UniProtKB/TrEMBL annotation:
Residues 18-105 form the GST N-terminal domain. It comes from Ruixingdingia sedimenti. SUPFAM superfamilies: GST C-terminal domain-like (SSF47616), Thioredoxin-like (SSF52833). PROSITE patterns: GST_CTER, GST_NTER. It holds the Pfam family GST_C. Gene3D superfamilies: 1.20.1050.10, Glutaredoxin. Belongs to the GST superfamily. Transmembrane segments: none annotated. Residues 107-232 form the GST C-terminal domain. This is Glutathione S-transferase N-terminal domain-containing protein.
Amino acid sequence: MPELDDFALTRRWPPRTPGAIQLYSFPTPNGVKISIALEELGLAYDAHAVSIVKGDQFDPGFLDIAPNNKIPAIIDPQGPGGAPLALFESGAILVYLAEKAGRLLPEGAARYTVLQWLMFQMGGVGPMFGQLGFFHVYGGKEIEDPRPKERYRAEAERLLKVLDGALAGKDWVAGDYSIADIAIAPWLRGLRDFYKAADITGWDRLANVPAYLDRFLARPAVQRGLVQPPTE
């Protein structure tokens, strides 16, 4: 049976608590999903900073468990059957952690409601908001052709309206607080606070989304998760 020490990246990022879930991440919207989930679920974890600024995501050891060279990734030393389990892709990790802890992902029909909103984030909110950020703040802002930025701006605005409608009369998108909220809300924070794109996506005209984000950010576990892993 493989052991935690068999993973090459443990030489670069040594476990501090070998029995805990090892989180390899960086405080991006996708990264903080997992640290927030771990905090909400009360699962023991070691958070290791994989700096996407320094190119740590291309470390051969990291690529062994995350071949798409994207954070976050985890190794659970106590995976199914007691063997270590390595996972990449934030959506898959959220499902795994929720099932491991038996919380934030309900049974029955409600499970699929949560999963549909998780997929809404994975397939829509994340890619579209991220592209808008590129064209609004980062390298793409130097492109003179307005069409790429407008494409993503319009789609981000549309997605916000979809979410706003879903939140009417509800505190959380799928009913009870769940991994769907943990997936969606960090991207809302990123759009508003890091991309500074609220004013171009109709944020102030939304009836429910701003309060939803404020509710999410007020949670103590969210506040703890947002600063993991430490980057200095």
